[in-house]
Amino acid sequence: MENVSIPILKSGNYLITSPQVALHDKLAVQFKKDILGRIVETKAEGLVLDISAIDVVDSFMVRQIGEIGTAASIMGTQVVVVGLRSTVAMTLVEMGFLLRGVQTARDLEKGLEVLQKTGRR
Amino acid sequence: MLKKETQEPILESSDVSEENIQELAVELSTLLEENANEIRSHWVKEMRRSGVLASLSAKEIEEQSRAIYDTCILCLKTGSYQGAENYASSMAKKAILETMTVDQIISGLLILRDVYGRFIFQWYHKNPAKYAEVVHTYEPVARRILNIVALAFVTERESVIKQQEAVMRLSTPLVEVWEGTIMIPLIGILDSARAKQLTEAVLEQIAKTKIDVIVMDVSGIAAIDTKAASHILRTMQAAKLMGTEIIMTGIRPDVATTLVTLGIDLSNVVTRGTMREGLEFAYSKQGWKVTKD
Amino acid sequence: MEQELIEILEIKSEADIIEARVRAKAIAEALGFNYMDQTRIATAVSELARNACQYAGKGKMTIKPLNKQGKKGMEIVFEDHGPGIENLDRAMKGGYSTGGGLGMGLSGSKKLMDEFDIKTKSNEGTSITVRKWL
Asked: Are the C-beta atoms of B182 and B176 separated by less than 8 Å?
């Protein structure tokens, strides 16, 4: 597989990223590294992870999101996952997977609102 | 190569007189009755061969084949199709719910028609004129019976579909109370099928429009089964993940007890007693305050 | 006349896992499953394909359309010649949230599909059959 990297944008005190492809092994590892690297770099207060382009979320993906959430919070950054599709939300609930350590919101706009409301300061 | 020779003319249906038809009908039905066992087992064998009987037990095959066979002969003999109509509509109601498909029933009848045809040929072919008359007597009856059966199935199926649609329509009125808040008053019996349809409608709406809160009022629910209850709960959790809070209002004490007895975990569900309290919750969630001028 | 359309895929790598679920989803759609069910099927396939890849190194997925007396559906079989599953009961009990581990995939897939059948033998391999009906 080619080495695609997922862009991570900065908007004020927050980071925003929106993976457009399925996160397989190597890509997931790279992605996590990139996110944590950017958090350290920017000391971002929050991260919005937009998964609206992802149509299937399995246990592997849930774990990746959980790890991103945990690592980020250790560094003082909150993570909000936004854009869950109805089909994805339903399968997660049916499988009994909870997205621990991260909040969820409807979209980018709402996600940023949530981050502002529960911000550090 | 078929040679075009001068043959006996094939009688047009209108050439056979009424009395003649009556006589022939009785004659034919008597023959069919007398040879019932032989013809019926031939029919069953043919059906087996074409896979029509796949899902049936020996007992069912015996019962149903006898019933159909006798019904057909009765129609032929009496000229009245009431028997066929009654049988057809009772079959239609049963088949839709149980193991036989419309395809099986109609194929079975078409094979019976062919089988009758073969026996008629066997008995009458040596007398071409008489054969033609018998065929003209028999064919309309066969056609009519098949028609009755097909129509009974289609009608039954259409009525089932209409019922389902009516239920669907009743079941999900999504009322937009104001921007971002929707109310769903549920009424009647909530079974799994309805619960599934409700879920789809709700989640689709959430995906399409920006809904912050859904107030789902269940005070009008007469009965609910475990599967439906679990399904609704999961829908609420899924909606929450998507950023919409669903709160339940109007849970009657007896419904609450039933849910608890069924082991449904309501601890993470936001509930309020009345629709009004639910709406107040919705306002506060959206940061609004209601004042009176 | 309906042809026997059987889809077979070897699963050896991450890319195959994704390919597996894309194909499964496409077939589900072609068979008439709605979006929700397509996603359930694709998710279960993703779980089971990943298990085969991760725990057995490689596996084979076979997708078959089903037609039982007019009832239509889809069957997917995952076979591998891996180490087999030690304690099937424990593995099926799964767990919840934080994800990962054999159990997650198995119990999760079971919840998403209508039928779930698993045969496993130490050192010989595992065969998992799942079905979903329309």
From this structure: yes
Walk me through the domains of chain B, giving residue ranges and CATH numbers: 13-166 (1.10.490.10), 172-285 (3.30.750.24)
Q: Which among C25, C43, C105 has CB closest to A91?
A: C43
Residues of B in contact with C36 (CB under 8 A): 200
With respect to residue A1, please indicate whether it lies within any of the assigned structural domains: no
Residue of B nearest to C34 (CA): B200
In the stretch 15-74 of chain A, residues with CB closer than 8 A to chain C read 22, 24-26, 55-64, 66
The answer, as to whether pTM is greater than 0.95, is no
Q: Which superfamily does C7-133 belong to?
A: Histidine kinase-like ATPase, C-terminal domain (3.30.565.10)
B205 touches chain A (CB under 8 A): no
- pLDDT: is B79 or A93 the higher one? A93
The answer to whether residue A72 neighbours chain B at the CB level (below 8 Å) is: no
The CB density around residue B130, as the number of other CB atoms within 10 Å, is 14
Q: In a 3-state reduction of DSSP, which class is residue A121?
A: coil
**Residue A108 in contact with partner chain B when CB distance is under 8 A:** no
Find the residue in C nearest to B203 (Cα): C36
Residue A114 domain-assigned? no
**Roughly how many angstroms between the first and final C-alpha of chain A, as a whole number?**
42
The 3 state secondary structure assigned to B196-255 is: HHHHHHHHHHHHHCCCCEEEEEEEEEEEECHHHHHHHHHHHHHHHHCCCEEEEECCCHHH
Q: Is the ipTM of this complex over 0.95?
A: no
pLDDT in tens, B98-131: 656 777 778 888 898 899 889 999 988 888 888 8
Is B200 part of the contact surface with chain C (CB cutoff 8 Å)? yes
Q: Is there a contact between C108 and A58 if contact means CB atoms under 8 Å apart?
A: yes
Q: Give CA–CA dist A91/B26, Å, rounded.
A: 65
CATH number at residue A14: 3.30.750.24
Give the integer Cα–Cα distance in Å for A49 and A61: 13
Instruction: Note down the domain range covering A88.
Output: 8-109
Enumerate neighbours of B (3 or more CB pairs within 8 A): A, C
